[in-house]
Amino acid sequence: MNVIDNKGEMMADVDHPMGMFITFEGTEGAGKTTQINRVKTFLEAEGFEVVTTREPGGTALGEKIRGLLLQDDMTQMTELLLMFAARAEHLDKVIIPAISAGKWVLCDRFTESSYAYQGYARGISLEKIAVLENLIQGSLRPDCTFWFDIPIIEGMKRVQNRGEKDRFEVENLAFFEAVSEGFRSLSKERFLQFYKIDALLSVDEVSDSIYQRLRELIAQYGR
Ligand code: Z5A
């Protein structure tokens, strides 16, 4: 796999094999975080070095930006730009160095969340988001995105006892239905990248489904 990074430089060639960039997407309570921890164990047992991380966040500055995004009032465009500001840091300091060193990066949410939340749910044009995606990422896209599909109500039930809600969690059902619709549309447009997970299945069944896809990726791309 040859990828041009956000500075227009080739990230790896045949003499320097790259790791894989795997993202986990879905609405709240879908089980992403639970599975990332299991996938890390699975991949390490297969002999890979694994980095787990999340968005917004993943760096010291990114985590500060996350705090603002989850708590402070802001315009929709500020929200979008802060997501990408945190992402620029994350790519340069964590994601690109790890992939270039041959590691597998497991990331809880990425740019597809910006399309789903800021685009489909908040209403910012998808074209504007695409401009930022190309600016910040170059041609870098996740090798695989596990999309955890779950009825909104079921996800909400799983996290209802968590305590104080953040700026996203207080949104209404229509907002989250729009987010879900966003992921559904993206899964059709990016069908080679997306892998749909029935997130209503048990934790073990969801893991099995993910491991099956990962075994295919390992067989396809080698070590
Ligand atoms: N956001 C954005 O707007 N734009 C962007 O570009 C980005 C993000 C990157 C923070 O995300 C917010 O940022 C997010 C979108 C926005 N807001 N929302 N909503 P976050 O990832 O921190 O928040 P989250 O997605 O809501 O996390 P979550 O609610 O923790 O969901 P999860 O990680 O998918 O679920 P979990 O923690 O693994 O599991 C939740 C519970 O369900 C837990 O008790 C588990 O034990 C249980 N669980 C897990 N799997 C199962 C199964 N299979 N069966 C039964 N119970 C299960």
Describe what this molecule looks like in 3D.
This protein is of the alpha/beta class and 223 residues long. It has one domain (20-221): Rossmann fold (3-Layer(aba) Sandwich). The chain has helices at residues 32-45, 60-71, 76-100, 111-121, 126-137, 152-159, 173-189, 203-221, and strands spanning 21-26, 50-54, 104-108, 144-149, 194-198. The longest helix has 25 residues, at 76-100. The mean pLDDT is 93. Bound molecules: ligand Z5A. Ligand Z5A binds at residues 26, 28-34, 55-56, 83, 108-109, 113-114, 117-118, 158-159, 168-169, 202-203, 206. It holds the Pfam family Thymidylate_kin.
CATH topology descriptor: Rossmann fold
User: What overall geometry do the principal axes of the alpha carbons give?
Assistant: globular
How many discrete structural domains?
A: 1
Using the 3D structure, state the CATH architecture: 3-Layer(aba) Sandwich
Strand order of the largest sheet: 2-3-1-4-5
Strand content is: 5-15%
Work out the number of β strands: 5
Task: Give the CATH superfamily.
Answer: P-loop containing nucleotide triphosphate hydrolases
Order of helices and strands: EHEHHEHHEHHEH
By helix and strand content, what is the structural category? alpha/beta
Distance between the termini: 12 Å
Subunit arrangement of the protein? single chain
Can you count the helices?
8
CATH structural class: Alpha Beta
Largest sheet: 5 strands, parallel
Helix content: 40-55%
Q: What is the radius of gyration?
A: 17 Å
**Averaged pLDDT:** 93
The distinct bound ligands, ions and cofactors come out as: ligand Z5A
Protein name: Thymidylate kinase
Function: Phosphorylation of dTMP to form dTDP in both de novo and salvage pathways of dTTP synthesis.
EC number: 2.7.4.9
Family: Belongs to the thymidylate kinase family.
